[in-house]
């Protein structure tokens, strides 16, 4: 009887505890427990969204999302089918992988999931599917794809493995391209499946907008091909170039070498991903002479036929010598540009004076980023007047003691080609959403007018002489067209700030056609060897770009509509 009584007592106690617990659950404060239960029941699903496309000005695809497939094996299923050898052999043959490597993964019999090959195309999937291999299936994955591979890679950029734009347009326009992901919020049952009738929130995804660039795929190809040829022919460490529509400021091509494949960005090096057109500051050398000479012309201080004594190649200013590459006696202003006389340009700058030269350089927007829509732009270096040394005005006149990125110098040449209007450079033509609605469109914008129309015309006429017989830029000439341009050769500076002999940055910047410009082209070669001057290295690369570009554009003669409005620079006053 005592055993029965004991058992009854234990049961009574258990029932009392159970009743007390039920009372606590129903009558007590159970908010924390209810929240925990709610969390366990809540079903939340993020709806991924496609990234917008990047296209050139003619609608050719430069970047898009693709749905590919991972080839996946369930090793436990393969093992139960005794098919490890045959499955490994078949997959290795189709995928072009070593059989032992595939066999190692297939042989992990305790595993249910092994990726044999990531991101294969539909054709490969169909080949494998036709084999009907046990335990083999395909996992769809969305990936970013760059069909043109290296073409325009520094402009387009790439998306990293987390889906974040990490270079070029992909980075600077990431918020526009990535769109807005959607979301489902509801409840799930005991098998962890959603209960559709209990869905509380549905937020539809919004696909990213597409971006149409000003880049023309064909002009980009001409530019990159010429750079590759120039790198090989002249042994340069690096090279870069840009092509700009002088009337609008639109960038038709922007190329840098070395390059990389955005589809394989993870194996590229930092120096390969550098967009040198905007990301490198350098002293431009004699190509910069177009700035002080156009300023002095605009001020009425000189005329094209005014004579200057170039001192037979040696001139002292403020106790320091200044030399010409070749000795010259008297040269007119056209001759100073044609022969690229440092002494002649320096004397013109001294006539202009520090204050006026500095103000013109500011009006040309030097020392500040152009604002073009890619990341990593350097601002150049234009020291304030109070930091100018006594001799700086003579050195700046020949493109030393100042630094630019290539787009800034290209802008000055485009300004000369555009009757004195300095245009805002831009790469993004328009942004279009998934319904075809234009969300944003870039209109040409004049940001300043540093020089008058007549000054620009005089400069073009003089710069045409640079590419004719007797000039430093004859190798930039293009049959059937006038070319206006300027050569540049500057010694490189080492990490200690000293000039390095026999190491140069060589360049050519020009307009074609020179008398009625359509495009401006800037070419820079970093340390070409053994030939180092811009006229011998960068000028022929310019010609190799300019000739196919101008024939492709097929400009209509002879009257080109002028830019009729824009803010007047102080040089007009």
Structure characterization notes:
This protein has about 575 residues and is α+β, with helices and mostly antiparallel strands. It contains 20 helices and 22 strands. The strands form six sheets. Strands 2, 3, 4, 5, 9, 17 and 18 form a seven-stranded mixed beta sheet that branches. A five-stranded antiparallel beta sheet has the order 11-10-22-21-20, with helices on both faces. Strands 1, 6, 7 and 8 form a four-stranded antiparallel beta sheet that branches. The longest helix is centred in the first third of the chain and has 26 residues, at about 1-25. The chain is elongated, with a radius of gyration of 34 Å. Residues about 555-573 have low confidence and may be disordered.
């Amino acid at each position: 009887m005592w055993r029965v009584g004991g058992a009854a007592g234990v049961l009574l106690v258990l029932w009392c505890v159970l009743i007390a617990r039920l009372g606590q659950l129903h009558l007590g404060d159970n908010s924390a427990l209810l929240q925990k239960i709610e969390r366990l029941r809540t079903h939340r699903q993020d709806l991924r969204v496609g990234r917008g496309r990047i296209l050139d000005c003619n609608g050719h695809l430069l970047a898009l999302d693709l749905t590919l497939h991972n080839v996946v094996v369930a090793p436990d299923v393969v093992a139960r089918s005794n098919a490890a050898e045959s499955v490994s052999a078949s997959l290795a043959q189709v995928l072009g992988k070593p059989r032992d490597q595939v066999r190692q993964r297939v042989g992990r019999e305790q595993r249910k999931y092994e990726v044999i090959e990531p991101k294969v195309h539909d054709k490969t999937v169909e080949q494998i599917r036709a084999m009907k291999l046990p335990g083999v299936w395909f996992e769809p994955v969305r990936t970013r794809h760059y069909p043109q591979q290296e073409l325009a890679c520094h402009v387009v950029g790439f998306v990293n493995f987390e889906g974040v734009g990490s270079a070029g347009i992909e980075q600077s326009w990431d918020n526009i391209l990535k769109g807005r992901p959607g979301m489902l919020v509801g409840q799930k049952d005991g098998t962890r499946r959603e209960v559709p009738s209990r869905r509380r929130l549905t937020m539809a995804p919004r696909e990213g907008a597409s971006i149409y660039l000003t880049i023309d795929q064909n002009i980009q190809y001409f530019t990159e091909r010429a750079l590759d040829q120039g790198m090989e022919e002249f042994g340069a460490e690096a090279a870069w170039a840009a092509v700009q529509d002088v009337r609008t400021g639109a960038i038709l091509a922007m190329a840098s070498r070395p390059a990389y494949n955005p589809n394989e960005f993870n194996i590229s090096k930092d120096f390969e991903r550098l967009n040198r057109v905007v990301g490198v500051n350098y002293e431009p050398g004699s190509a910069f002479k177009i700035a002080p000479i156009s300023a002095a012309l605009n001020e009425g201080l000189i005329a094209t036929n005014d004579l200057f004594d170039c001192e037979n190649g040696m001139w002292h200013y403020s106790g320091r010598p200044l030399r010409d590459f070749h000795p010259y006696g008297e040269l007119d202003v056209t001759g100073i540009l044609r022969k690229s006389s440092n002494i002649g340009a320096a004397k013109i700058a001294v006539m202009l004076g520090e204050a006026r030269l500095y103000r013109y350089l500011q009006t040309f927007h030097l020392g500040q980023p152009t604002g073009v829509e890619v990341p990593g732009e350097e601002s150049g270096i234009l020291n304030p007047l109070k930091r100018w040394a006594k001799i700086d005005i003579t050195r700046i006149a020949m493109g030393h003691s100042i630094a630019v990125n290539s787009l800034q110098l290209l802008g000055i040449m485009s300004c000369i080609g555009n009757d004195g209007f300095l245009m805002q450079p831009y790469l993004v033509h328009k942004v279009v959403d998934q319904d075809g609605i234009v969300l944003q469109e870039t209109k040409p914008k004049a940001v300043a007018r540093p020089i008058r129309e007549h000054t620009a015309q005089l400069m073009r006429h003089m710069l045409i002489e640079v590419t004719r017989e007797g000039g430093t830029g004859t190798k930039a000439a293009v049959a059937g067209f006038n070319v206006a341009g300027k050569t540049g050769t500057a010694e490189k500076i080492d990490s200690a700030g000293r000039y390095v002999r026999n190491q140069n940055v060589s360049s050519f910047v020009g307009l074609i056609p020179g008398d009625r410009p359509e495009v401006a082209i800037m070419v820079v070669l970093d340390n070409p060897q053994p030939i180092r001057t811009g006229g011998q290295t960068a000028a022929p690369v310019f010609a190799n770009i300019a000739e196919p570009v101008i024939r492709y554009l097929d400009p209509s003669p002879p009257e080109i509509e002028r830019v009729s409005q824009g803010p007047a620079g102080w040089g007009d006053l």
